[in-house]
Amino acid sequence: MSVGTELLLGEIVDTNAAFVARELSLRGVTLQRKATVGDNLERISGLIRESLSRADLVILGGGLGPTDDDLTREGIAAVAHETPAEDPELLAWLSNLFTSRERTMAPINRKQAWLIPSASALPNPLGTAPGWFVTLPQGHEFAGKRIAALPGPPREMNRMFREELLPRLNLPTWAFYAVTLHTSGIGESDVATHLGDLTKIANPSVATYARKTGTDVRVAASAKSAEEARQLAEPVLAQARTALGRYIWAEEKTGDPPATLAGAVIKLLAGRSLGLVEAGSGGTLALQFAGAAALKGAAISDDHATLLTLGLTPITLSRDGACSEAAALELAHGARERFGTGIGLSVCAAAEGEQQGQVAIAIVGEGLERVASVNWPGDAGQVRERAASTALNLAFRALSAAEADQTQAGQTQANQTQAGQR
């Protein structure tokens, strides 16, 4: 449960719920529900009761401040049928904390030293709000079930969750193994069709997620050991790889650095340099390669006169327009020549105007020339983002195909050499 009217109003993005979900899933805990509630005592206590009727553990984030609208303590107390009171040890700790910071503790801060009989305090080394860990007593309708209350600021919550709450939960030893297959050039519904009945399996589970760069497929298994979890996942992973092979641009295990389509393209460049020309996409493609050593230069312009200096010819501009496959192809060659690179990549996008949504992209190199066009719906920002994703997808496909051709040619030559030696 995330507590705070500011969350309901969209003034603050709730990153705490995502953090808790990830941490619990890594430990084999099934999260049944996430909910957000405003600063209202009746609604907070009502949601706690409802949650306890469904789950063994309820975790609340936020609402532990000192003000009148910080009502998490009161909500838990109402559900437990207990009355909060100042805890002398907590009050002394809180007073010393303010003194150590050379501040005077306001009377309203005394609220943060409250406890109920069923609660123990969770220390907070980063703030003034201790957490609560409640085990509901015998005789209560939810006897034995537990409630945890953590502070709202993410730094405080994350540390308290890991260092104070998790050790108290006594979770069974459980291992989690997950691999995400990143795909592009295929929609989520088509991915699901390719996967067939794999998405109906419980452990390992197979789930699909639509992303800006394509569709992710996450295969996740849990077991008593990491090796058992891996062994559960691998056969299903193998089937998913077979079903989606040519669309997969990266695999990412839990704990790996985030994979990007631009990173996959850079890997396929295999030491070759890259030059970019963008027309109409506002630098969204170049941004994907920011900091990459492979990128030797980028030119970004919507001005026709400038594009004519970058390889676009007047006849193509007049006959086909600046957002055409012919223009994209000339600008890709122009990028390669302008920056002296092994690979030239271009994107031409009409983010606004009569042709809004029209995108053309091209990639060229030694023995390599690919061009494509597409029409994307959406506003100017969406068209620019999708243009960059389309360019990355084309680059990945073209470079992958070239690499496969080169590998096959090398194998053929090796076989011929071996045959000749016989």
From TrEMBL:
| MoaB/Mog domain segment(s) | 1-172
SUPFAM superfamilies for this protein: CinA-like, Molybdenum cofactor biosynthesis proteins
**PANTHER family reported for this sequence:** NICOTINAMIDE-NUCLEOTIDE AMIDOHYDROLASE PNCC, NMN AMIDOHYDROLASE-LIKE PROTEIN YFAY
Protein name, per record: CinA-like protein
- Superkingdom of source: Bacteria
Recorded hits in HAMAP family, A to Z, give: CinA_B
Family per record = Belongs to the CinA family.
